[in-house]
Amino acid sequence: MSTLLRLALACWLLVFASPAIAREATVAVASSLQFAFPELVERFRAQGGPPVRVNYGASGNFRRQIAQGAPFELFLSADEQSVLALHEAGFTEDAGAIYAVGRLAWIQRPGRRPLPDGEAPFAAVEAAIATHRAGKGRPRVALANPEHAPYGIAARQALQRAGLWEGSAPLRVMGENVSQAARFALADEARGGLVAYSLALAPALADQADHVLVPESWHAPLRQRMALMPGAGDAARALYEWLQGEEAGRILARFGFQPPGAADGH
């Protein structure tokens, strides 16, 4: 093949292949959105939006991956800190935007034991600790790993406020992310667990779990921020803008997320 022909072929590939690549957004999404985000993408696509390639995981893990060069164009975190830290280090286009405020909930399998009420949402944790100390078993308490999951951090803060962090140490089982923690919470050997309210409301889990909300004042606000990466394509930018609109807000509200200003009393 001549040099001229090779050059012509390369130009043809650039002209015809690049738009196809640009039409897909590559997104890193916190596990608290695992059930809400498919509906968001479905509505976005139904209105003419381009395809979206989604990766779910713990926000702290995504933060490290993006800092190491992972090719995500848009990052939806379950906290603010992960995005702001990336921005300060030059890995995001700007500081992004808060798209929702999450809530923490206690979940447990239905019908096995009385569900705690909102006044004492950790009664089940207290009972599990008492059972273990009496030598009558080791009922597990599930939460996401606070080392890289914002909902795990909130769970730790709430348990510390209740004076139950140290006592629950032998009982705790950590999920890699909050979605995995929800699965652990509903296992046979578990008493329950602390997870995102959005997961408790998801149709896939609603019939398998009872839940009670943890008071917002028991942990730092779960402000969930998103940001674009430098060089993000048009598809990711369109999705980023759409997620800040009214329809996206209504879908998020059905999954228990509050609007961006909720944690500030707005």
Instruction: Report how far the terminal alpha carbons are from each other.
Output: 66 Å
Question: How many DSSP E strands?
Answer: 10
CATH arch. level architecture of the largest domain: 3-Layer(aba) Sandwich
Which class best fits the helix and strand makeup?
Answer: alpha/beta
- Report low-confidence residues grouped into runs of 5 or more: 1-22
Regarding quaternary structure, how should these chains be classified? single chain
Structure description:
One of its GO terms (molecular function) is metal ion binding. InterPro entries: ModA (IPR005950), ModA/WtpA (IPR050682). There is one protein chain. The protein is α/β, with parallel strands linked by helices. It folds into two domains: 3-101 and 223-264, Periplasmic binding protein-like II (D-Maltodextrin-Binding Protein, domain 2); 104-218, 3-Layer(aba) Sandwich (D-Maltodextrin-Binding Protein, domain 2). It is 40% helix and 20% strand. It has eleven helices and ten strands. The strands form two sheets. Strands 2-1-3-10-4 form a five-stranded mixed sheet. Strands 7-6-8-5-9 form a five-stranded mixed sheet. Helix 3 runs parallel beside helix 4. The longest helix has 20 residues, at 3-22. The radius of gyration is 21 Å and the shape is elongated. 44% of the residues are buried. The model is unreliable at 1-22 (pLDDT under 50).
